[in-house]
Design brief:
Strand order of the largest sheet: 2-1-3-5-4
Structural class: mainly alpha
Shape: globular
Largest sheet: 5 strands, mixed
């Protein structure tokens, strides 16, 4: 016998999940959201305090800070000191506004991004508490904040933490039944980072599939479909209800408008041709998509010791499921909570878990196809959903589940502070701080001793030496840009090409452009060697020459060098410069 459909779009689920009426929800938000936001922001600001004055790192220095600074100085949404990548401008507008009000500095920039992070954590707190209770909410917020990728990105001027925040508010408003507010947040998310359209389209597809399910299989839909989908199994359905999922497409209009404006100004819809080729054109090959899909799953469910949480949750869930099956077959009484139970007793309802899994897989699929670099930060909007589900499972099935939360927190802290014996991006944990400090000291040494020389280096050091507003040079020595000659990286091929043109430069600032893991023993394993070849072919992996080899090849001498775990930087003075200094009259 088919299950009866909900009487109204959201009423059925709200009753089953013991949700308050919307009026009570609004009053509760007014009463508690600002206090939660203030507490979360204060905690985030204090734990990030040692990092707030550090200069900008990698893509911050390469695009987002110059684009926001151009907006501050000229009022133009299209950057002119860097090639436009067609990223929507919401985050750059936010940074320019904060600089206008409080002044331009890394401290203001990182504080502004922490405000955005706290805004997102407020949504996560409210969402987790409503779905699974206060204890699960505390554990979820704590683990998400300690997750190395989220921790680092919370203070960085990238787009991902804004996407994290606005996606969470979209889901919270949606699950509260405040549909148009959810669509508004989805629209803001799209103009913060264009890739959040995967979440919007996932919600659209979820409602479409729900409508079809209610029409064809209402018994199945009552178990798996969220109650906001229209029950089309009824004989008479209003015309507006039938097309209700189409409202999600309205959230895409601001992004479409931005792309139209960008095309009008630049002649390109999705950024300059090189950017488009790297992030879309060169990524659409079957083997690369398969590798990227596996890596994105790893980033979403296991990376940076996240597997400690997710694997333990999966094991306890599987064990409880097996015990329930055995108990049911022998005694006729299932041990697992029924799908109708909700709140603290029964955990997150099955329909909501299915919705979260659908959204996570949509993001995994999206970043398997687009995105030239396999950066873990792209999956940040999915991480809190994975953590929330895992914590809820542990709370329901694990004895002394708090100990498993503590173990996961310890694992996250270890990943934040210590590097694994394989390749990571420096921005995935506190390795980025070592990179920035090394480059800061090298830039000051070069500024003090080689301000009038031509310096050969690669990006991002080329920008660091040539753009004083990034905070590396011009802080008390020469106070002007240094002259830079750029190379792609410090591989043997690039250095051989540079040797043939050594009359064009006098000094080399060489550094590790890829994180160098302690994995000499791993290269002897055929699988690891094959993985390295795949990384080189599809994901721009390369190995830089060590400083001593670069010095020999270019007939120079290392005059300054420092290193940190997985990273190094060196200044190499060419012999022609040294000889010229020796014969210079005193």
């Amino acid at each position: 016998m088919n299950a009866a459909a909900p009487a109204s779009p959201a009423q059925g689920w709200r009753k089953s999940a013991a949700w308050y009426p919307i009026s009570a929800l609004v009053s509760e938000l007014r009463r508690q959201k600002w206090g939660s936001f203030a507490i979360l922001f204060g905690a985030l600001w204090l734990v990030h305090l040692p990092l707030l004055r550090l200069p900008y790192f990698w893509d911050e220095a390469g695009y987002f800070i110059p684009a926001a600074r151009d907006l501050l100085l000229t009022g133009d949404l299209i950057p002119h000191t860097t090639l436009s990548n067609a990223h929507p401008p919401l985050v750059m507008i936010w940074l320019a506004l904060c600089w206008k009000l409080a002044g331009y500095s890394p401290l203001i920039t990182r504080t502004a991004m922490l405000l955005v992070a706290a805004f997102g954590f407020t949504a996560l707190w409210l969402l987790s508490r409503r779905l699974a209770g206060r204890a699960v909410a505390i554990a979820t917020v704590l683990l998400t904040a300690l997750s190395p990728t989220v921790f680092v990105q919370s203070a960085m001027a990238h787009l991902d933490i804004a996407a994290f925040a606005l996606v969470l508010w979209t889901l919270y408003a949606y699950l509260c039944g405040r549909r148009w507010l959810a669509i508004l947040f989805a629209a803001l998310a799209a103009v913060a980072k264009e890739t959040t359209v995967a979440v919007t389209l996932a919600l659209f597809a979820y409602e479409v599939l729900g409508c079809i399910a209610w029409q064809l299989r209402p018994d199945w839909a009552s178990q798996w479909c969220f109650g906001t989908t229209a029950p089309l199994n009824q004989k008479k359905v209003e015309w507006g209800t039938r097309f209700r999922p189409m409202a999600w497409l309205l959230a895409l209009l601001p992004l479409v408008g931005w792309y139209a404006y960008h095309f009008h100004r630049t002649g390109h819809v999705l950024g300059n041709p090189d950017y488009l080729r790297y992030n879309v054109g060169a990524t659409v090959t079957p083997w690369r998509i398969l590798i990227a899909f596996c890596m994105r799953l790893w980033h979403a469910a296991g990376y940076m010791n996240l597997f400690v949480l997710t694997a333990s949750a999966l094991l306890f869930w599987w064990s409880a499921r097996g015990m329930a099956a055995g108990k049911s077959s022998h005694e006729g009484a299932p041990l697992l909570p029924s799908s109708g139970r909700s709140g603290i007793a029964g955990g997150i309802p099955r329909q909501i878990q299915f919705l979260f899994a659908f959204i996570i897989l949509a993001q995994v699929a999206e970043f398997s196809i687009v995105g030239g670099a396999l950066l873990a930060r792209y999956m940040i909007p999915a991480l809190p959903l994975v953590i929330l589900i895992s914590v809820d499972v542990l709370r329901r099935y694990a004895p002394r589940w708090q100990w498993w939360i503590a173990a996961s927190a310890a694992a996250f802290l270890a990943a934040l502070l210590l590097n694994p014996p394989w390749y990571i991006a420096p921005e995935d944990n506190l390795t980025w701080t070592h990179f920035v400090r090394l480059h800061q000291r090298a830039a000051r040494y070069a500024e003090l001793h080689y301000a009038d020389d031509r310096i050969l280096t690669a990006w991002p050091a080329s920008d660091e030496l040539n753009r004083p507003f990034l905070g590396y040079v011009g802080q008390g020595y020469v106070q002007r840009p240094l002259t830079v000659v750029s190379v792609e990286n410090f591989t043997a091929e690039e250095m051989l090409r540079a040797r043939d043109q050594e009359e064009n430069f006098d000094v080399v600032v060489a550094f590790s452009t890829k994180f160098e893991a302690r994995r000499a023993w791993m290269s002897r394993i055929p699988y690891i060697a094959g993985w390295t070849r795949a990384q080189t072919r599809y994901f721009d992996f390369h190995q830089d020459l060590p400083p001593a080899a670069i010095a020999r090849l270019l007939q120079g001498q290392i005059v300054w060098q420092e290193s940190a775990p997985g990273e190094w930087i060196a200044l190499i003075e060419l012999n022609k410069v040294r000889n010229a200094q020796l014969v210079r009259p005193h």
